[in-house]
Sequence to fold (558 residues):
Amino acid sequence: MPAIPAGGRGEGTSGGRNLLLVRTGITFALLASVVSVHFREPELFLAGGFKYLYAAVVLSYGWLLLRFALWGSNELSLPVSILQALVDVAFVSIIVFATGLYDSVFAFMYVVIILLGSLELFLKGAMIWALFSAVSYVSMLYLQMRGVLVPPGAEDVHLAWSQFLRPTLTNTVGFLMTGVLSGLLGEDIRKTRQRVQAREDDLQNLESFHKQVVDNIPSGILTADMLGRLSLINDTACAILGVRREEVTGKPVEKVLGGLELSDSRTESRLPRSEIFFRRADGGEIFLGFTASPMKDAEGKVIGRVVIFQDLTPVKQMEERVRIADRLAAVGELAAGLAHEIRNPLASIAGSSQMLRETPELQEDARMLLDIIERESTRLNGLITDFLAYTGPSVRNVGPVNMADLIGEVVDAVRAGEAREKGVEVEKPPLKTLFVDGDAEQLKQVLWNLVRNAVQATPPGGYVRLDLFSQLRHAERYAVTTVSDTGKGIDPAITAKIFNPFFTTKEGGTGLGLAISQRIVQFHKGFIEVRSQPGHGSIFSVFLPERRTDDHAGGPVS
Fold:
């Protein structure tokens, strides 16, 4: 296969195809002319010079078919180009010979093929075609002058030297001058092609670089035209929104990014950063922060809108944990000041009621009142104990904890107690063995609180399911324990409050169970996530930093 010059393979293919078409057109014009003559005068068929014209047509078409079969429309190498020059010169020489040679009016066709040669190999090609044309034409005139070559229909008359020299010099100079001029023009065309190709390469590289930059920016980017239809979306935006580029291109931006309202197309002011709650196609819920600004062309005319957005869900979760930590700090300071002040009077009340109970003449009504005092004192003391556990838990017995075994112990205990009494099934699939560093008793208390809450929220005949798996979150590996139920779910209006101290929706509840659980998990450098849909139950996920397998080899297992 011949090499493609600097113009590029695509341009070389196009140029070669055009040259094939030009040669085919010239040959077809000759064939059409001959055939039209034969239709008017059938007796001239294959008579005189017509057989040579047919031979020229066969030569040209045969070579063109062979060239296309072997090299297609690609540019030719130098040896094949020389062969093309010989065929072109032979084709024109046959026509000139068949039409009278010295008297032929078709000698100008040598100029045509010289021009084609300049397009094949530029200056080099023009000179090759010009030399071949001059040699062929001069040789045929010389042979005609000597009487060796007699054109069809011409008298056997020898040419004088003057008749030979005049067309020889004129046409030779004309051919060579045409070769030089067309070659120089061809070189200009070649250099122009190279410059154009270099510009196209630069544009393609710039476009590729632009696409790589846009697709690798860690923010979602989308653009909309003046009608609000999405025209561009990068890979990050597709990943954040959970969509595919071909599905959303051309759709209204408001349908792709629900909650986004682009400003009027005539305004040029930038929208302030806004935040929206977005539900992905897969059901996931995320917070998006975005800005929108006008997109302008080189003349400063607004041609659309650019929207840049980010997934703020991790930031929102972090902010919520910081708010909870601030609340815990405030509550802890309050608890430290009140705990001892409340417990001391409680101890006095409990001791006094016990002394009064020992009075022999104590009446039944008085004994009943003392029972109430002792019971409420005990309840209040337990509440303070829970409160202190919430405000100041400490991780005491730290070691490798097998979460699968811990979940199994909690499930067995709940199945044998409250779940059986209520008629709720507690499911636990085969669990992968995952270890965390922590206090086994405190982590068991967390799971106990979550599973008991799930059982209490599930109607009879429902089920509670526990699962354990490993997940990468925020560049850290976590052991994730999920507790899901088939209850009525949590009202979205109160979801943000369920970890607040003393907040409860259960009759007789203290509102400290989830608060204590979250506090313990935070002391273990983890966090709890809640997903709930009213009418479809809730899922509590406990994230604890996973301990590497080689860290607990040979260590104790809880």
Residues 478 and 545 are 4 Å apart (CA to CA). The chain has a mean pLDDT of 79. DSSP finds 13 helices and twelve strands in the chain.
